[in-house]
Amino acid sequence: MNPAADILWFEDEEMVLKSTIPLFKKNNLRVQGVQNPHNGLSILEKQDISLVLLDLRMPEMDGIKVIREIKSRKAEVPIVLLSAYIHDPEYKQRLDKKDIVDSIEKPIPMETAASFREIIRRIQRASNAYKAKHFEPFTIPFHDYLTMEPDHTQLLQKRAQAIHRQWIENQWRERKAKWMIVCDHTVIRASSTFDDYPVREELVEIGQTYGLIPFVFFVAPYNEESRWTPLRDEGDYYPTIQLNAATKNQSICIIADFDTGNMTSLFDLELLEKNKVVEIDYHFDFFHFNKHHDHEISYYVKKLLIELVDENNRKRVQNMPCYLVQNWGLSPFTEINPDRSGLVGRDVFKKFSIVVVLDGKHKRTKIYYD
Asked: How far is Cα 279 from Cα 248, in angstroms, rounded to an integer?
């Protein structure tokens, strides 16, 4: 796949274009140079452009006039000045800083690789911010996605779900799937269980093969309970289960409320991140958002090592897919108990084959292995 150039560079010096565009290309910036501003404005109207690089001093139309033309045609396209005259008093007086997102002084610094990489990063960030907000998510090249920062990847994932929600839900129903990998409206793989949820290596291979983002869409946890109401009786308690949640190197003890109204277990993402139990890869850990009790909630699915110890001090560990909730403290899951950091669902019964005794007298949850 060879995507068209989406960065448009207004620059009247041919040698500057010829010497610099190949360097941009090596850094995965698809730049099209134009020496004639009128031709550039025509291209802007016909093509999907994510960013304009703009010289200020050009013979046929100076950069300030070009900015006005761009704002009258495609006002939202970001503009980065790339000029030797960004400090010139004449242009500074005529320039409205709200019309540009950045300015870079020519000549572009090439003294060190680090200085050039910083210029590339600034250009990529401005371009990616526009793509994440305005481009069709299924058409964005995979290597562009890899250069995006977390706020851009999250926005892009959210837009993909919102734009294609009906199609995604139809695919889930047809396949009876809990998750699926999608590239350009093609379902690459789907499954009815989270046990074979895709890992980073698989997604990288798919992205490199198709040249597009391998989106992962998964169903939100199904909450069967109605809205919780405050427990008014003094001394009333919500049943809890104590467990250890871990990955290979770190673990944390969590006292989670026991929720039979949920098939899946949910935990506080920030708590797990703070204790280095999980680390979110914002390119390959895809999140899902939905409404629950009029709140918008974002979830990630990650496999955790869950350890339960029964009353006879027997330990068992299961590698379980869990829903990790962003902004847990502001979610409806903490309405009845602000101190809870997790909800254990019925998946624990299925994975561990446990017998659970709710001891109301001593306010304890007792677990037994058969």
From this structure: 12
Beta strands (DSSP E) in the chain are 7-10, 31-34, 51-54, 79-83, 102-105, 179-183, 186-191, 215-218, 240-246, 251-258, 266-268, 287-292, 295-309, 315-325, 342-344, 354-359, 364-369
Q: Are 95 and 119 in contact (CB under 8 A)?
A: no
Average pLDDT over residues 7-12: 97
Domain ranges of the chain: 7-135, 153-218, 240-369
Cα 328 to chain centroid, rounded: 17
Q: Which CATH class is domain 240-369?
A: mainly beta
| Domain range 7-135, CATH architecture | 3-Layer(aba) Sandwich (3.40)
Residue 4's pLDDT is what?
A: 80
From CA 248, how far away is CA 81, in angstroms rounded? 47
Three-state secondary structure call for residue 10? strand
The candidate with the shortest Cα–Cα distance to 161, out of 209, 219, 76, is 219
pLDDT (tens digit per residue) in 312-334: 999 999 999 999 999 999 888 88
The pLDDT of residue 229 is 37
**Does residue 349 or residue 99 have the better pLDDT?**
99
DSSP bridge pairs for 369? 354
Residue 328 DSSP class:
G
- Which one, of 89, 44, 92, lies nearest residue 66 by Cα? 44
* Rg of the chain taking only CA atoms, in angstroms: 26
